[in-house]
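Team,

Forwarding the record for the chain on the shared tracking sheet. I've put the sequence and predicted structure together so nobody has to dig through attachments.
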Amino acid sequence: MLLNSFLLSINAIASIFVMMAVGYGAKRLLHLEKEHVARFNSLVFHTLLPLMLFYNVYNSDIRGGVNLRCLGLALGVLAALFAFTWALVKRVEGENSQRGVMIQAAFRSNFLLLGMPLIRELCPGADLATVSVMLAIVVPCYNVLAVITLETFSRKQIDVKKILLGIVKNPLILASAAGIVLNLSGLRLPTFLDNPISQLGTSASPVALLLLGAQFEFQDVRSHRRNLAICTALRLVVFPGVALPLAALTGLRGPEFAVLISMFATPTAVSSFSMAVQMGGSPELAASAVTVTTLLSAVTMFLWTFLFKSLGMF
């Protein structure tokens, strides 16, 4: 089991880096400018990512129920650590375009893309209704917090109305809301809509990774090394280091515990790069944060899994 979990982490990370490497190479072979990458990124943010999120929520087993203790712990820890990260980053970094990206990179995990496969491996044959409901609730929360963060630090003065408008108009939040409404209504999409939405949504992650690779520059890691060290430590060490022991102490076991590993111990979400670029954050820091946390998570995810498997949590 532990070897399988390690191989799952390695394979997931390796696949991500292969797609990023293709994007990095394509930029140089085709002589793409940053402006070209930004235009493609806008397409992904406004179409492909919302379709992916909508389809995932739409197909979730929301009615299957959820462990309220698990959900409450997840959202409570997320809120507390989000507030802590906000205060810390405001204290150590003075540039707003860096602040928003750092906070987002710390709290927003790749739960959407890595959550389900990781839990299937950690708890084979388990009922995944809890995972589906957690995805339908947690991912929109990530998006709302990301909009609040990036909107706040994109302005010299906080404008509450514009922040609320940014939340309402954000395509990822609109997609989540539409998916929840359609899911709970019991209505099903006709095949001529279901198939293209599914296919376009499936393409969102690989295309986002290609653009992430095209945006990446090695010198950005060196120039942002202090901020990268802070948000990487928060994402891969502090967040799981707080959430997982609390889950163990409150008696969560099995899939409910594993879902918190996939929420708190996975690397920074790929979609955080697209949102940061669209909302005035530093694209260089955003790309580097996803790259560095993804690389290091191959080690940290295995260590967290090994520790809590050894303690009998799942």
